[in-house]
Automatic annotation (TrEMBL):
<feature type="domain" description="Peptidase C14 caspase">
    <location>
        <begin position="3"/>
        <end position="36"/>
    </location>
</feature>
<dbReference type="InterPro" id="IPR029030">
    <property type="entry name" value="Caspase-like_dom_sf"/>
</dbReference>
<dbReference type="GO" id="GO:0006508">
    <property type="term" value="P:proteolysis"/>
</dbReference>
<dbReference type="Pfam" id="PF00656">
    <property type="entry name" value="Peptidase_C14"/>
</dbReference>
<protein>
    <submittedName>
        <fullName>Caspase domain-containing protein</fullName>
    </submittedName>
</protein>
<dbReference type="GO" id="GO:0004197">
    <property type="term" value="F:cysteine-type endopeptidase activity"/>
</dbReference>
<dbReference type="InterPro" id="IPR011600">
    <property type="entry name" value="Pept_C14_caspase"/>
</dbReference>
Length: 51
């Protein structure tokens, strides 16, 4: 079974207060998932920031 992870970090919300760390937090989560990928627990990691 293939396991996928999609991580999205968005600091720029339209008409809302901007966040300061959402993109950095998403990158940290991606890094953890990539370490899992190296031990065979995850098949694909994708990250999108500030869409």
């Amino acid at each position: 079974m293939k396991t996928l992870a999609l991580v999205i970090g968005n600091d720029d919300y339209y008409k809302k207060h901007k966040l300061e760390n959402a993109v950095n937090d998403a990158i940290s989560v991606k890094d953890v998932f990539e370490r899992l990928e190296r031990v065979g627990e995850l098949s694909l990691v994708m990250i999108f920031d500030t869409l």
